[in-house]
Design brief:
Order of helices and strands: HEHEHEHEH
Strand content: 5-15%
Strand order of the largest sheet: 1-4-2-3
Oligomer: single chain
Structural class: alpha+beta
Shape: globular
Length: about 110
């Protein structure tokens, strides 16, 4: 696996700091356990509305990974369209990785 983000998500999963699924992510945000919510680019729009509303209500950052459900699922070893990161350090690292990746994409287009 050459994708650093997916590799890091695998580490988070093994550390038991990820929860997977729309309802579980909403519950994690409600309980104050979620530091970041990530979703696949092909995640259901209906489910995303519910998760995004909970993220806004409870002040949790939500970001598109720019990966498909298939890619996330392969990296994590189970079906995944949306996930919640329940560790502040892991969340900060993932945000930094995604922001760096997006800046790189921007510079490639200029």
């Amino acid at each position: 696996m050459n994708d650093k983000l997916l590799s890091f998500l695998g580490i988070c999963m093994r550390a038991k700091k990820l929860v997977i699924g729309a309802d579980v992510c909403v519950k994690s945000a409600q309980q104050g356990n979620s530091y970041l919510i990530l979703y696949a680019e092909d995640f259901s729009a209906n489910s995303l509305k519910k998760v995004a509303a909970a993220a806004r209500q409870y002040g949790v950052r939500i970001i598109d990974t720019h990966r498909t459900k298939e890619e996330l699922s392969f990296a994590l070893g189970r079906l995944c369209g949306v996930l919640s990161v329940e560790d502040e350090g892991f969340a900060k690292k993932l945000i930094a990785m995604l922001e760096t990746e997006q800046r790189g994409d921007l510079y490639d287009k200029i």
